[in-house]
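User: Second chain of the day. Same drill as before.
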Amino acid sequence: MTNNSSQHVPGLKQKKVFKIIVLGDSGVGKTCLTYRFCEGQFLDKSEATIGVDFRERTVRINNEEIKLQLWDTAGQERFRKSMVQHYYRNVHAVVIVYDITKPETFHSIASWMQEVESHGLMGAPRVLVGNKCDCGTPESRLATTYAQRLADKYGMPLFETSALLDSECNAVYSIFMTLAHKLYSKQPLRVISVEGEQGRVTLPRTKSRLPATNNDSCLCS
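Assistant: Same format as last time:
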């Protein structure tokens, strides 16, 4: 493939590229979420990420192609130390994931936010994702109201979803498209809440629906 990055082609508009990092403890489902969004299918055989897992997908906003680069990092501290500076370089947005059936992963959010702040990203768009709403029982899952209070504290939209359930396809898609719309428009991230069977789902406040293409069918299984 010929590299034309240094050449100017008249009439050719350069595609916008946004780097989004996905944070959270090991095992919360970061890799499955990014794989589902980028590859359009569930990752059946997922192993613990060592170092950084990188994926990308091109989406269309206002008839313009936007490339989203998703960086999924290992949750284990011993795998992160040598990668942290490179991982946080030139970041445009942040996704923080926890497992709604494991309170310890939710309690870790504060430390992840401290890491985000230490790298000067508190001004970047951020979303909080409670994953694995297909697991456990309603009594064993972290209450949505509890998670919403923390999301409000940090000024983040909250999504509760699953990378496994067909019924959660739109929520997985909306997580990354919420950020894509924010980055594209460079407007404050405002959200509205829609009550669903699995709890609250947050979507961008726009006048029109999120654009969909033939490739944007079910994005989570």
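Helices lie at 30-39, 77-80, 84-87, 103-107, 109-118, 144-154, 169-185.

User: Great, on to the next one.
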